[in-house]
Amino acid sequence: MVNVYFTFEPREDLRKPLITEFPQVDFVFDSKLDTEKLRAAEILVTYGEDLKAEHLQYADKLQWIFIASAGIEKMPAEAIASRDIFVSNVRGIHKKPMTESILAHILAYKRALPFVYEQQKKHEWNKKARLSELNGSTALIIGPGAIGSEIGRILQAFDVYTIGCNRSGEQASFMNETHKLDVLKDQLPKADIVISMLPSTAETKHLLTREHFEIMKDSALFMNFGRGDLVKTDTLVEVLTEKLIAHAVLDVYEIEPLPAESPLWEMENVTLSPHFSSHSSRYVERSLDIFKPSLHKWLAGDRDLENKMVILRGY
């Protein structure tokens, strides 16, 4: 039997159908990574944060790592690559909950919902809020992949003009225009909303500098839902202190959790979310919807699996 080792425990209602569907598989479920159980594993299913380079010395039989996450920056990429272990992930799984989170933040900002909630707490009837509309605006989506394209689809339903920037410049789904990242500075002045969905790679680290914010509209809303090392924290603090843009919504940070002493906590023109915009009660369910067809293929000797990754490239 093929040994599949989960380093997390799916709910019972998800676990039972999985076991029933694959009678030829020996599933092992645990709440953390155990080196003894890893020894027997041919397939490892993990969120990606528990596996360290030193663990691979015990994983003699390991052939495939399925990561129930989109990001792999905390994984021992070089050690995995040196063993030529197959890696795939759940890219695209986050697109529904993340799009809903991003849209919620945009509408809350445009329609002054934080102000509404604050007045309710004070028992005050106060109409002195600055309300604006989403329709008719332009959104620049940096990294219009699976999630970014879904954001574009929803924003277009609100009559938002969408511009995408990616590495290739090839047309992305639900973008009115798509350009190469090389010309990002040409696109930034056009945007009312700038949304980054970029992964963490050597090319994207600190990609955005003060100069990028200086050429944005002073009324712009900047949103980072990709990875926190896109821009230095000190740069963000400067930009927001000097009000080079109107507001920022951050779900990711250079250091996580965001330190309690960070000046970002005290700033009125920033909304801070604790890197949970992708969370959903359906997360593991959607992960298994990707894993199960891939496992059927793997058992049949087919290695053309969904979301195959080049581990050293980072995606």
Low-pLDDT regions: none
- For this structure, the CATH topology of the largest domain is Rossmann fold
Q: Which strand order does the major sheet show?
A: 8-7-6-9-10-11-12
CATH class of the largest domain: Alpha Beta
How large a portion of the residues is in β-strands, by DSSP E?
15-25%
The number of distinct helices, counting runs of at least 4 residues, comes to 10
Total number of distinct structural domains: 2
Helix content: 25-40%
Mean pLDDT over the full residue set: 96
Q: For the record, give the distance between the C-alpha atoms at the N and C termini, rounded to a whole number.
A: 30 Å
Report the radius of gyration as a whole number of Å. Answer: 22 Å
How many β-strand stretches?
A: 12
Order of H and E elements: EHEHEEHEHHEHEEHEHEHEEH
Overall, the morphology is elongated
Structural classification: alpha/beta
